[in-house]
Amino acid sequence: MYSGSERRQRSGNWFTRGLGCLTQFVALFFILLLAYYGSYLLLRGPIPARSLAIAHRGDSAHAPENTLAAFRSAIEAGADMLEMDVQRSADGHLVVIHDTTVDRTTNGSGRVADLTLAQLQALDAGNGEQIPSFAQVLELAGETSIALMPEAKSPARYPGIEQEIAQALDAAGYGERAVVQSFDAASLVRLHEAAPALPLCALYGLGYFNLSREQPGNAGAVCPMAEMVLLYPWMIRQAHDEGRKVYIWFGALAHPWTVRLLVEFGADGVIADDPGLVLAVLRSR
After folding, report:
1. Looking at the chain, which runs of residues are DSSP E strands?
2. 167 and 232 assigned to the same domain
3. Which end of the chain is more exposed for a tag (fewer CB within 10 A), N or C?
């Protein structure tokens, strides 16, 4: 039989040994992480001289998303590009809003496709702001010639929206100063057919790691989710090797450290709710 002091000593030895194993495991984990990301940084190849700061739905960290106030704030912050979502009203106007309903972002309810432009703009999109038409956003952007990244949102709901977006961009002189994006491969094909010279970007979300494939609509850019890139940065090298640009959007992990990693990995642009955060990282390099 062991005395009380002996039992405590043996218990303490088990605890100490367990703690030592845990420490060794954590140390090994970080060594492997350093080796994994270090090898990528050594082999990443040429990277952009400067990544672009792209304002996700405008400066949506400081103003209601996808409103003229958010886009003005992004321009004032010094963003390189404005990202936005484009849908169509019941009476055929292109409008800038993310969700297919107005419920989350306004004081109203109902589907965007079922409401006229006048009905949509009668709603409060936050702080007294309206849902803007795409034409209004183009007019605002044209004042400073800032580049645009509109997304054809839920295009299956709006037959012909691709041609309408392409025509609106061309009429505003943005045919070559915009990159139109979509998650919908068929929509990208239609965009390419409507305007073969229009720059396109294929959007990818959760679970997509390998972007080394023929892109729909011959898209010259890909836009993977930041969290996927942080797990597998080699997708940037794949895209660059195939001559494509890489713009990266955040699901949840936007932070100065993660933005810095994406920039060092070689992102051509970082899409964030707070473009000022991206700009601060770029200035600190």
Report:
1. 52-56, 81-88, 94-96, 147-152, 180-182, 200-203, 221-223, 245-249, 269-272
2. yes
3. N
Spatial separation of the C-alpha atoms in residues 230 and 141, rounded to whole Å: 32
Domain shared by 15 and 70, yes or no: no
Do 189 and 127 belong together in one domain?
yes
Catalytic residue among 56, 62, 93, 192: 56
Considering its fold, how many domains does the chain have in total? 2
pLDDT (tens digit, 9 = 90+) per residue, 116-134?
999 999 999 999 999 999 9
Q: How confident is the model at residue 18 (pLDDT cuts 50, 70, 90)?
A: low
Domain identity same for 72 and 131: yes
Structural domain containing residue 59? 48-284
Active site annotation includes 93:
no
Q: Which two tokens stand for residue 45?
A: 């190849």
Mean pLDDT of 129-147: 98
Shared domain for 39 and 52, answered yes or no, is no
Distance of alpha carbon 112 from alpha carbon 97, whole angstroms: 8
pLDDT score of 26: 80
Q: Which of 62, 98, 192, 255 is catalytic?
A: 98
Strand partners for 149: 83
Supply angle C-alpha 86, 88, 93, rounded to 5.
105
Whether pLDDT at 24 is above 90: no
255 is catalytic: no
